[in-house]
Amino acid sequence: MGFFEKIKAGLTKTRDALNSTLGGVFTGFSEINEDFYEELEESLILADLGVDTSVKAVERLRRAVREQHLKTTDEARTALKEILTQMLSVGDTRLNLSTKPSVILVIGVNGVGKTTTIGKLAKQMTDQGKKVLMVAGDTFRAAAADQLEIWAGRSGAAIVRQNEGADPASVVYDGIQSAKARDADVILIDTAGRLHNKTNLMNELNKISRIVNRELPQAAKEVLLVLDGTTGQNGLVQAKQFKEIAGVTAIALTKLDGTAKGGIVIAVADALQIPVKYIGVGEKADDLMAFNAKEFVEALF
After folding, report:
1. Residues paired with residue 278 on neighbouring β-strands, in sequence order
2. Which of 42-46, 49-53, 150-154, 192-196 is predicted least confidently?
3. What is the spatial distance between Cα 53 and Cα 60, in angstroms, rounded to a whole number?
4. Span 155-203, pLDDT tens digits
5. Mapped to the 3 state alphabet, what secondary structure does the chain carry?
6. What is the pLDDT of residues 109-168, one digit of tens each?
7. What average pLDDT does the chain have?
8. Which of 122, 173, 214, 299 is the residue whose CA sits 20 to 30 A from 1?
């Protein structure tokens, strides 16, 4: 199954929901008028683009209709697809892995699929011939390191872990030394996700970042925020908090196959102006896919 087909299959619930709302807007109006715009805005909000992003998209569409002298709702639909693609295109969607080693610090609240995302990334990278080292920096949750250990076995990546309750920063330090000794290409660092205790989390992430910067000052670094697509606008609230705390550089949205509200991808990219770099549309390692804005929008429609 190709990339586009896989996204299309993974977004079935979202597309069906959009078709029942958006589809009715485009087929139910013979001309572009105020009622058309109002219903369109409502449909976009229902698809979880959020109020701000939906209003902005419809405003841009109004401008496009005026400037391009669009007459039919079919033409408006094509214009809307272009607008949404532009809203999603907010930077390079590829991870920066330009140095050896490169570091990917993976953050997000518990339960969003953070550890699984790290495992899938490790599998994809080792399949590409890269030497990957995973660091079990979530020492708060006992199962997190065990889960990573399983993925290490599946992917052939190395792993550094310590006992439950160990200082995450010391695990990261050990991981970096191990990566240097093994000549690793990529270091994937798991972190705890206790957002309700923001001060502790901020201190912990700052400490980890300082160690990475001190030990690997020249390394390419990504801070990858993992969000659960099924949480909708709540995910956007989380993303805003993590952006403040951790200087997020990339976003991975998981579980999009399980929700009718995949429009959250557009809301997150537009509101935060941080590129979505991966989306998850299934359980298998290759169901975590590098993001492509144009193909995503095509699959939605």
Report:
1. 252, 290
2. 192-196
3. 11
4. 999 999 998 889 999 999 999 999 999 999 999 999 988 766 678 888 8
5. CCHHHHHHHHCHHHHHHHHHHHHHHHHHCCCCCHHHHHHHHHHHHHCCCCHHHHHHHHHHHHHHHHHHCCCCHHHHHHHHHHHHHHHHCCCCCCCCCCCCCEEEEEECCCCCCHHHHHHHHHHHHHHCCCCEEEEECCCCCHHHHHHHHHHHHHHCCEEECCCCCCCHHHHHHHHHHHHHHHCCCEEEEECCCCCCCHHHHHHHHHHHHHHHHHHCCCCCEEEEEEEEHHHCHHHHHHHHHHHHHHCCCEEEEECHHHCCCCCHHHHHHHHHCCCEEEEECCCCHHHEEECCHHHHHHHHC
6. 888 889 999 999 999 999 999 999 999 999 988 788 999 999 999 999 999 999 888 999
7. 90
8. 122
